[in-house]
Amino acid sequence: MFPHPVDVGGRYAALTVVGMLPAALMGIDGRALLERTASVDAANEMGFGEDLAAGGRAGSDKLVLRPPPAIGSLADWIEQLVAESSGKEGRGIIPVVNEPAGYLGADVHLIADFSPDPLDLGVEFLRWQYRTWGLCRGLGVNPFDQPDVEAAKALARAELAEGQAGREEPIATRTPDELRRAARPGDYLALLAYLPPRADIAAQLQGVRAAWGRTLGCATTLGFGPRYLHSTGQLHKGGPNTGLFLVLTADDAEDVAVPGMGITFGALKRAQARGDIKALLARGRRVAHVHLSRPEDAGRLA
């Protein structure tokens, strides 16, 4: 057992035992990584975050992240940190990862200044934690809570109970065409896919993102469910009402029972998808839901 500070939430825990123990097991020089963080100027990074907030209030509320390939997955970590921390009370900054169409509209702030040295990851972690704190201070929101994540969990539990009782009712959403026609200047498309996160499926979904982004002239994001519920889900429901949400589900080729719970993983995943759709609709979000016979059919939505 390893001690962890109880007052440090998950998305701020990269430099606690949560991140440093796996780093040690991978043979990374943790001491060097931590010593390099001494170069971070907290006040300067807080100011950077406050500038992001000012830009967001002026309409530049999309944060396109382009780290070098050697540390490319850092963008996924920043995505959760920024989205879950800032997306509240109708405010927030929308992080954009792996944008396939190269969208750089007037509503975008591009960040490509990252060190490619993996031992500088500690610097990036600390830098972005301070930036996010400054961002949230500038937006006037609490950077350390995630109220809409808990609400979506409650709805998912209710959906699971309804499904077990055989009372699952259809949820009325827009069609994809209706969702497209509902687009407004400054919107973004969020593709939320409860599909296997395989490389071939991800490539198809990137094609869908690119096609919709070009047609609508907007930034696009991609989240695999249920992971995105704990990364960008707070922003979707608590942030600005500028998202077009295209939710994709599919029949499972095979399903597996959750031991001791009397349900399958497929049923749990379906309940999470339905719960999040209901949570989005309750917040007045524009949502379309498409159920596919096979995950491999996702590319047709392009």
How are the secondary structure elements laid out?
Blueprint: H1 17-25, H2 30-36, H3 42-57, E1 62-65, H4 74-86, E2 94-97, E3 108-111, H5 121-139, H6 147-164, H7 176-181, E4 188-193, H8 199-216, E5 219-224, H9 233-238, E6 243-250, E7 257-258, E8 263-264, H10 265-282, E9 286-292
Parallel strand pairs: 1-2, 1-3, 4-5, 4-6, 6-9
Antiparallel strand pairs: 7-8
Helix pairs in contact: 3-5, 4-5, 6-10
Q: Could you give a short description of this structure?
A:
This protein is α/β, with parallel strands linked by helices and 302 residues long. 43% of the residues lie in helices and 14% in strands.
Structure description:
With 302 residues, the protein is α/β, with parallel strands linked by helices. The protein folds into two domains: 130 residues, no CATH class; 155 residues, Rossmann fold (3-Layer(aba) Sandwich), CATH 3.40.50.10490. It has ten helices and nine strands. The strands form three sheets. It has a four-stranded parallel β-sheet, with helices on both faces. A three-stranded parallel β-sheet has the order 2-1-3, covered by helices on one side. It has a two-stranded antiparallel ribbon with strand order 7-8. α3 packs across α5, α4 packs parallel to α5 and α6 packs across α10. The chain is globular and about 55 Å long. The mean pLDDT is 95.
Keyword list:
302 residues, alpha/beta, Rossmann fold, 10 helices
| Radius of gyration computed on alpha carbons | 20 Å
Report the count of strand segments: 9
> What share of residues is helical?
40-55%
pLDDT < 50 stretches? none
| Secondary structure tally, helices | 10
Beta-strand percentage range = 5-15%
What is the name of the CATH architecture of the largest domain? 3-Layer(aba) Sandwich
- The CATH C-level name of the largest domain is Alpha Beta
The CATH homologous superfamily of the largest domain: Glucose-6-phosphate isomerase like protein, domain 1
Structure class: alpha/beta
